[in-house]
UniProtKB/TrEMBL annotation:
Keywords: Hydrolase, Membrane, Metalloprotease, Protease, Transmembrane, Transmembrane helix. GO terms for molecular function: metallopeptidase activity. It comes from Nonomuraea spiralis. The keyword Coiled coil does not apply. It holds the Pfam family PrsW-protease. The chain crosses the membrane at residues 18-36, 66-87, 107-123, 135-155, 167-186, 217-238, 245-265, 285-306, 318-336, 356-378. It comes from the Bacteria. This is PrsW family intramembrane metalloprotease.
């Protein structure tokens, strides 16, 4: 790295720069909504409306939507100016390049944390949190077990090489915090914009219809965009862990589960938990693996497919189609659920029990099952593709890797059932539970390292090797080190 490169505040890696650009794009969209509010034509005649305080109310509501963004952006500008000046001063004083890079890395981390924190302050709504803190805490305690169980299921969808658990936790956190805050910001903007900046209806009670008109579309596309941005950032920063459509589905589903967690807590805690039971059933039980999980799993699948394409236009088109599919399905789901909820009372009379246990699951099945079927089929196809690719990679290993993965071990790697049985046998053969768990974990580490080596070989044969992934020699050395540890530990 040159001396000049160490003085840059932006990251030197192109992928990191692109990830930062994706994060900044969310803030640009928020700024765009602020601009729309400022340049909108005055469509309300306050005098004719007979509400003299409407202008003050409008300005107050508009300010609430962006209460944290304007101070946050000002703080970002100040931090950027200070960082630029500090790095220029350090260069003028001939500070060693490695020290300047450490300083730049600290400033960069502070700026990124600030960018992430601004939308995060929306989750949950500060007013709601102050009004019902106990309800939010109880909702969190109720939703965490089901969400973690669903994340465990998503993680075990992978039969061969698995996405690391820390990466899935980052996806979960992005969906719950950053994507949730961005989606809430866009929804609040539309609610204030639609009710205060469109012509008033004759009946003041119809104001709520203006808010509802267009909200399913705004929420569907903005929420999927926020979640898709998280998948894109993880794809750029951890591309070597995206092997195929399977990895994309898993990361996308984890992001959707995080968003569903944040949304469930918000709805369950509203009005001090008045509708907590219904929302827990609908969002954490009946619709846990559907809804946001299914929508973002399709977006993630698009990134997994793009990982295996060599043409940049094809990659962009695939990702765009996946995101549009998820957003359109989300919009249709919101619109149809709202329509059915309003019109079903005219069609027939039902009890609350029948509505919760029968009608709600039936609606979720009708409007969300197409996306669930789609991501399950994509997952099934991806698993078959991975099995075939790993089989080819294991049969064409170079002689230098034959000690790391022998022929009998290759047969075990291709069979998830045999891998599990081998680990269970090691667990049972130990003289005490502690040694058994240690043996189980060591075998799991060995299988994971061998699958990493085989997967990188597969990507190399396809001409899609990631330059940031460990080379074959490093992966082989890791496998041999784990094998040596197993030999030393004994049976």
């Amino acid at each position: 790295m040159t001396d000049e490169a160490h003085t840059h505040l932006l990251p030197a890696c192109p992928r990191q720069r692109m990830a930062l650009l994706v994060l900044l794009s969310l803030h640009v969209l928020v700024a765009l909504t602020m601009l729309i509010n400022q340049v909108r034509p005055p469509q309300i005649d306050v005098a004719q409306a007979g509400i003299p305080e409407l202008t003050k109310i409008s300005n107050f509501l508009n300010s609430l939507v962006y209460w944290q963004y304007l101070p946050g952006w000002a703080l970002l500008a100040v931090l950027s100016a200070v960082a630029w000046g500090h790095l220029r001063y350090a260069k003028a004083r001939h500070v060693p390049p490695d020290r300047r890079e450490r300083v730049a890395r600290r400033y960069r981390g502070t700026l990124v944390i600030t960018l992430l924190a601004l939308p995060a302050l929306k989750i949950p709504s500060l007013v709601d949190l102050l009004a019902w803190p106990r309800a939010h805490a109880l909702a969190l305690l109720l939703c965490l077990p089901t969400t973690l169980y669903a994340l465990w299921l998503v993680h075990h969808m992978q039969r061969f090489r698995r996405v690391p658990v820390p990466l899935l936790m980052r996806a979960l956190g992005w969906g719950a915090v950053v994507a949730g805050g961005f989606g809430l910001t866009m929804n609040e903007w539309w609610k204030t914009f639609s009710t205060l900046h469109f012509p008033l209806p004759e009946n003041p009670l119809d104001l709520m219809l203006l808010k509802d008109t267009g909200l399913p579309m705004i929420s569907g596309f903005s929420e999927e965009l926020g979640k898709g941005a998280g998948v894109a950032i993880l794809f750029l920063l951890y591309r070597r862990h995206f092997d195929s459509v399977v990895s994309g589905v898993v990361v996308g589903a984890a992001t959707g589960l995080g968003f569903n967690l944040g949304e469930s807590i918000t709805y369950m805690a509203a009005l001090d938990g008045a509708g907590a039971g219904f929302h827990f059933w609908a969002r954490q039980v009946a619709g846990l693996m559907a809804a946001h999980t299914a929508f973002t799993a399709v977006t993630g699948a698009a990134f997994g497919i793009a990982r295996q394409l060599h043409s940049r236009p094809q990659q962009i088109t695939t990702v765009a189609l996946g995101l549009c599919t998820a957003a359109s399905a989300h919009f249709c789901n919101n619109a149809m659920l709202d329509y059915v909820a309003k019109e079903s009372r005219k069609w027939f009379t039902s009890s609350d029990t029948l509505n919760v246990l029968v009608l709600t699951p039936a609606q979720l099945l009708l409007f969300q099952s197409p996306l669930v079927i789609l991501y399950v089929l994509l997952l099934r196809h991806g698993l078959r593709s991975e099995a075939g690719g790993l089989r080819v990679a294991l049969t064409t290993l170079p002689p230098s890797s034959r000690d790391a993965i022998t022929e009998p071990e290759a047969a075990v790697l291709l069979s998830p059932a045999r891998r599990f049985r081998l680990k269970v046998d090691a667990l049972r053969a130990a003289d005490n539970p502690r040694h058994g768990i240690t043996a189980y974990r060591r075998l799991a580490r060995l299988h994971a390292a061998q699958l990493d080596l085989a997967a990188e070989r597969w990507h190399s044969l396809r001409g899609e090797a990631d330059p940031f992934a460990p080379d074959e020699a490093s992966s082989r050395a890791r496998v041999q080190a784990i094998k040596a540890d197993l030999v030393r530990s004994g049976p």
